[in-house]
Request: fold
Amino acid sequence: MNILVTNDDSIHAPGIALLAQAAAALGDVWVVAPAHQCSAMSQRLTIRGHLQANRLDAFPAPVKVAYAVDGTPADCVKAALALLPDPPDYIFSGINNGYNAGFDIAYSGTLGAAFEAVMNGIPAIAFSNAFQAPLTIPRLHLRAIAEALLQSHWDGKSVWNVNFPDREPGSLRGILENRTIAPMGMYYSDYLRKEIPSGSILLETVGKPLDPQTHVPEGTDVKALLDGYISVGKVRCAVL
Reply:
């Protein structure tokens, strides 16, 4: 089994190294990931100019090969189909530094790569962790969840979306499969407006993270995370 690993935080992010390490226990791993940070790029593609793929001499996991591509996460999936000797059987995207739950999935480069995989007929799983949280929970549970999802039914139109909460191992409440996406993002975001002497206006994104006291609909991915569960759910690709 060939597994392509990609992400949106760049090929140098700690999350992709852990994901590739876990994937290596399940099959042969190939890494094709952005050379630079590409968060919130959704399924953006580079359609002008060219992409450069640089092979890394060393990667912190046992992989067949690792390429850093100067493009977006979706670019990396399409580039992998040209770089790899055979199409991958599965694509793992992540582990993202920050949840991809609720409406945030619309902006996610992590999910963008997974959707690009599905559009090319390849099953995909997206993995995300709480922002700036240690990778303790993913390290303990990632492989078992991946194995279970690889054995599950794939309808050809959806990706599995896995989010790990910011919890100590002893306080993790379990795993919930959620069928509903919360009608909100994990952060309430707005713009802070500031006028500068040139006459221009600077708009800076600001937001307040959600917490367990925030009203969130029951049965949703965001609610599961705030309650201390690993959230697992399917997200349908909009064009399929």
Notes: The chain has a mean pLDDT of 94.
